[in-house]
Structures are given as structure tokens and as C-alpha cells.
């Protein structure tokens, strides 16, 4: 069992989250106690699995199977757009951050395992790039950033997730 994160580690992680969120146009939940609890969950999952999977979802322990729920998860943007917060409410919109409104409960968007496997297989067998482009087009599954090149970038220049969070864009 991973050791519980120290207050200092939680503080450092939150500071990094805030800086990254603000640089990308996102906002972190202003409820400090709530946010600290979520961060403790993220850090516990990092200790368990080696990656920061959403603390509000059941991770498999297999990074490839859990790519969609590594924070920031693939569902963050549509959740914020529709409900003012992501599923776990770590990320919120500007109105919630400013205390002008409250986030609505967010239903689970993550497809069941069989649907996730089927979608992964379809992406893997995708044909040539659309429109006769010379390079495949890669899409960041978190923020939607698109790039045309042989391989996805090491890190998304927009939201800073790793290359394994990209998929071939069809």
C-alpha cells in the first residue's frame, strides 16, 4: 500500500496543478479541502499504479487500459462545457471558480470496457490519413489539439499530457 502523501507533497502538487490549469485556460476547484482530498487520491493512485488516474473512477492498474482516465481525463472538456466541472470536480469553469455558480452533478461518460476495447481496435486499424495528407493527423484526446506528423508529439503543447494520450484522427 502506498504511503499517504505529506501535506507538503499535496501543496506542491496543487501548486503545479494550478499553474498548469491557468496556463491552459482551466480552473481548479476553489474548495481547498475538497481539492486536497482529490489530490491525495491522485497521489495515492500514482503510488499504486505509477500514473495519476482519476480518484473517482476504478482504475485497472494497466496504463494503456486507463489512458482515458489519467488526469486530466479525456472527458474533462465536455464535462466542464455541460456541467461546469469535470467528473471528480477537480477542474471547474470560471463561474464556479469565482463562486458565481455551482457545478451540476456529472454523469459518467466513460464507456464500459467492451466499448473501450472496440474503439481502441477501430483506432488501431484506421486506414490512411484523411484527405490524402502526407502525414497522419494526431488528436490529443484530452484537449483536441491536432497535428499532422509521423508520430504524435512527446507532450501536448496545449494541455501537457504525454504522447500516449494521442490518437490517430479519422
Written description of the protein model:
The protein has 170 residues and is mainly alpha-helical. It has 2 domains: 7-97, Ferredoxin Thioredoxin Reductase (Alpha-Beta Complex); 126-168, Single Sheet (Rubrerythrin, domain 2), CATH 2.20.28.10. Helices cover 37% and strands 8% of the residues. It is built from 6 helices and 5 strands; from the N terminus they run H-E-H-H-H-E-H-H-E-E-E. It has helices at 7-23, 32-49, 63-66, 76-83, 94-97, 113-124, and strands at residues 27-28, 91-92, 137-140, 146-148, 166-168. The strands form 2 sheets. A 3-stranded antiparallel sheet has the order 4-3-5, with no helix packed on it. The chain has a two-stranded antiparallel sheet with strand order 1-2. A hairpin with a 5-residue loop joins strand 3 and strand 4 (146-148). The longest helix has 18 residues, at 32-49. It is globular. The termini are far apart.
Amino acid at each position: 500500500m502506498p504511503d499517504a502523501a505529506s501535506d507538503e507533497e499535496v501543496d506542491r502538487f496543487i501548486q503545479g496543478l494550478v499553474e498548469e490549469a491557468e496556463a491552459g485556460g482551466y480552473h481548479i476547484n476553489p474548495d481547498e479541502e475538497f481539492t486536497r482530498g482529490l489530490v491525495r487520491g491522485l497521489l495515492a493512485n500514482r503510488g499504486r499504479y505509477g500514473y495519476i488516474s482519476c480518484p473517482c473512477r476504478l482504475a485497472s492498474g494497466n496504463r494503456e487500459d486507463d489512458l482515458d482516465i489519467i488526469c486530466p481525463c479525456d472527458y474533462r472538456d465536455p464535462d466542464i462545457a455541460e456541467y461546469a466541472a469535470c467528473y471528480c470536480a477537480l477542474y471547474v469553469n470560471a463561474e464556479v471558480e469565482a463562486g458565481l455558480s455551482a457545478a451540476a452533478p456529472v454523469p459518467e461518460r466513460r464507456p464500459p470496457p467492451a466499448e473501450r476495447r472496440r474503439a481502441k481496435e477501430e483506432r488501431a486499424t484506421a486506414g490512411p490519413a484523411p484527405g490524402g495528407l502526407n502525414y497522419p493527423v494526431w488528436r490529443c484526446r484530452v484537449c483536441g489539439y491536432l497535428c499532422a506528423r509521423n508520430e504524435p508529439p512527446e507532450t501536448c503543447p496545449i494541455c501537457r499530457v504525454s504522447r500516449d494520450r494521442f490518437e490517430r484522427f479519422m
